[in-house]
Prior knowledge:
Elements: E1 2-7, E2 11-19, E3 22-30, H1 34-52, E4 57-62, H2 91-99, E5 103-107, H3 108-119, E6 128-133, E7 137-143, E8 146-147, H4 180-184, H5 186-193, H6 206-225, E9 230-233, H7 242-254, H8 260-264, E10 271-272, H9 280-292, H10 294-298
Parallel strand pairs: 1-4, 4-5, 6-9, 9-10
Antiparallel strand pairs: 1-2, 2-3, 6-7, 7-8
Bound molecules: adenosine-5'-diphosphate and zinc ion (ZN).
Amino acid sequence: MIGAIEAGGTKFCCALASDRNTILASASFPTTSPTETLSRVRSFFQEAQLKHGTLQSLGLACFGPVGLDSNSHDFGHILNTPKSGWAHYPIVEALRTSLGVPVAFDTDVNGAALGEFHCGAGRGHSSLVYITVGTGIGGGAIIDGKILHGLIHPEMGHMQVPRHPDDNYRGHCPSHGDCLEGLACGPALGDRWNMAAETLTGDHPAWDIQADYLSSMCINLTAVLSPETIILGGGVMQYPGLLDKTRTRFLERFNNYLPLHERLGSLDSYIQSPELSNQAGTVGALLLAESARPESVSR
Ligand code: ADP
Ligand code: ZN
């Protein structure tokens, strides 16, 4: 058995599976204090193991920022999160001790990127970027088959994008104001227009501005990373027509600078929706767990 945890700032989703495609038990609960949340994690896995068999390893796709550098003292810790009680929490060690199995971990969006890469919309490619546009904006990249970490890990939501000429909104990011996340996450839409993103009508000017910011993001990702595909997930991307608007604006603004069409045939396969929808993080965490199985580590 392998285990997966998608640890989000709002909720923890746990799963026990016999392989990446076969989830046998799952549960989710709200993220409260580390002690309470981890005690629920422990209860879930204890109960699930009694029914289905012993856990060999665990994969964790975790909200961040998180310490991923194994040579650093903060490896396996959640870093400077505003989430009460979680800053500097050594989550990997806590899980390893509590469940008694090896733990492989990465950021939540890197986990989702890994899931889409092996089992979803990224199959058959050697690189991709996965972005979620939801309560925040986050992104993970797989380049030449490997998750991109670099110095810490990418924080794609905090890239700077040119301001739309009709937009005076100050921005929602507590650190940067009008970074991409500050201008285009779900709560920024709600705050700017005084109504929840999902209730804005299709002809509202919000969506042209939103597509403008997301197309800037796709241009930046294309120019910097040259991924074979960009996968846009998260609650805001469920708005009907937003993905198409983003593609159209991307095309207009990038001005055919790269011969994308020659390579891809269609822009629909370059900027696309996830295939695993809200399961990407869990599947990614299962893939991480497979890599931490005792027999794969010693191989
Ligand atoms: P999280 O990022 O917390 O995991 P989601 O990806 O579901 O959660 O994103 C939640 C955000 O998405 C909220 O700000 C919400 O207003 C927005 N949202 C959810 N559904 C839609 C929709 N159909 N159209 C536009 N925005 C939506
Ligand atoms: Zn920011």
